[in-house]
Amino acid sequence: MARTKEFDPEAALQAALELFWRRGYEATSMSDLVEHLGIGRASLYATFGNKHELYLKALERYDRTGLPPIVRELSQPGPALPAVRSVVRRYAAEATDARLRLNGCMITNTAAELGPHDPAAARHVERNWDQLETVLHSALVRAQAQGELPAGRDPLTLARMLLVLLQGLRVVGKASADPARVRDAAEQALALLD
């Protein structure tokens, strides 16, 4: 007879996500995960696979919870440019928030730590960035059609610039104690939308 799980896999995945997000992939050992999740090593392997598989599942969970609110905000009917500005300013605020900035963004952290040598992680990062770029592009196309964005601006290149800016805000915010650096960069980029 199969044994029933003595733990909640979703709660365990969330706990793994939080540990990986705080410490990174390389600095988190299987022993750390066993201790932090409070489950046995065999149960951990049976449920999630090895450390790498668990990390990718945690990354997917992060993506499922982080991107949909941005998609909803940028897809709302009505003026699009205020929503784009709101998203950029929220990224800047989160990047300078004392409680949030040291963890940074798990997607950005993954890009920096694993992207150069881990194809599975790099594919996940690219997929996230493609989705964010697409929703920014769509919002900017809508803004241009509604007369909010000058006709001479290219919504695709602006979306790509904003994507790179948002990722950069997360990196600089994580490493810099000067919030003005992040806020000023965000506002300067937003001025390009006028």
TrEMBL record:
PROSITE patterns: HTH_TETR_2. The keyword Transcription regulation applies. It comes from the Bacteria. Residues 6-66 form the HTH tetR-type domain. The keyword Transcription applies. PANTHER family: HTH-TYPE TRANSCRIPTIONAL REGULATOR YJDC, TRANSCRIPTIONAL REGULATORY PROTEIN. This is TetR/AcrR family transcriptional regulator. It comes from Streptomyces chartreusis. The lineage of its organism: Bacteria, Bacillati, Actinomycetota, Actinomycetes, Kitasatosporales.
